[in-house]
């Protein structure tokens, strides 16, 4: 990845490795402008349908898209 890169993930680690994979993806991204947003108290699956974690992720994505698209 060489364009702007944003990764958001829940802080609560699950059994399938999405937290670890997200960390690795962020580390490997070669983008000059990259950001990692960790949502405290949320798991990967909470980011699908739990209102508060989703709200936090959408707020960050909205600002990121406005700046980079």
TrEMBL record:
It comes from the Bacteria. This is Alpha/beta hydrolase. The lineage of its organism: Bacteria, Bacillati, Bacillota, Clostridia, Eubacteriales.
């Amino acid at each position: 990845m060489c364009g702007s890169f944003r990764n958001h993930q829940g802080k609560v680690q699950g059994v399938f490795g999405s937290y670890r994979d997200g960390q690795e993806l962020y580390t490997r991204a070669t983008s000059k402008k990259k950001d990692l947003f960790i949502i405290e108290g949320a798991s990967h699956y909470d980011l699908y349908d739990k209102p508060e974690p989703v709200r936090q992720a959408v707020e960050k994505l909205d600002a990121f898209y406005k700046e980079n698209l």
